[in-house]
Amino acid sequence: MPEGDSLVRLAHRLRPVMQGRTLRHTDFRVPRLAALNLQDWIVNDVTTTGKYLSMSVQAPDHARVARPELIVLSHLGMDGSWQIDAQPSHQTRCIFTLDGHQVLGFSLATLEVIPSDIAHDKLAYLGPDILDLGWNDPNTADALRSQVIRNFRQAADQPIATALLDQRLVAGIGNIYRCEVLLLARISPYRTISELTDEQLAGLIALCHDLMTLNIPPVAEEQSRRSTVDVRPDPSAPFGVRIADATERARAHADRRRRRGNPPVYWVYGRQRAGCLRCGHRIRTDALGTGPTTERNVAWCPNCQRG
């Protein structure tokens, strides 16, 4: 399932093609939307909330409709995608034709076209978005942080590994970042929320936000691979690590380009054969969840994550 940074990158790609443009033709290939026609509607914006993508569309002035503003709300699920100028297939769920381009949705887990107030209500169950711009403003970051910690405290018996994926507590974190931040923090995935301090919870959220921010524009280039390895030791920082600054990242990227082969991009995720990037110990993979339907494999290092 895509991480929140994947959705932000997707919205960044779609905006130049869609924002402010007129829909010349729409083709919805799901039964409940088959009769819907948004021809001549204007795309106001493309935004994200956690792992949801919202396309805000406005009715043309001449249209006589009860709801002149609608939201095309989608969730990619495990296999979904939005692509520009791709070839339609049996997995296509909708096609938007604009001047010069087509935008196609494939295998979408959720696809709805609903009024903006209903869309707001549907997303109200989500916790604060880990990539909300408010995290960059000290005036709002404290409120977001406090809300996330309050949400975590309401799930006191949950292991931290499942809590980080619980979109009701904090939205946008996926399995990759869950594994990586717990490794960097040296925290066992089995530690419950009740066993962690507010400072530890705040540190995990801050580290996750900062790692994800490295992988979205304007910091990340459009075609760059996701990576979590740009951190540096810092005894004064939470968990003894900090995000590398721009100069350090540029130097590290140059070094990686000079090496042969594919340099590692994760500390534990996907490294079951190679071992922990920090210590070389064998990676363990366990299925964790709040129930059988929510279990996901968490990769972790028993040597590093003893806390």
Structure description:
This protein is of the alpha+beta class and 307 residues long. The chain has 2 domains: 119 residues, MutM-like, N-terminal (N-terminal domain of MutM-like DNA repair proteins), CATH 3.20.190; 168 residues, Helicase, Ruva Protein, domain 3. It is built from 7 helices and 12 strands. The strands form 4 sheets. A 4-stranded antiparallel sheet has the order 1-6-7-5, covered by helices on one side. A 4-stranded antiparallel sheet has the order 2-3-4-8. Strands 9-10 form a two-stranded antiparallel sheet. The longest helix has 16 residues. It is globular and about 65 Å long. The two termini are 28 Å apart. The relative contact order is 0.11.
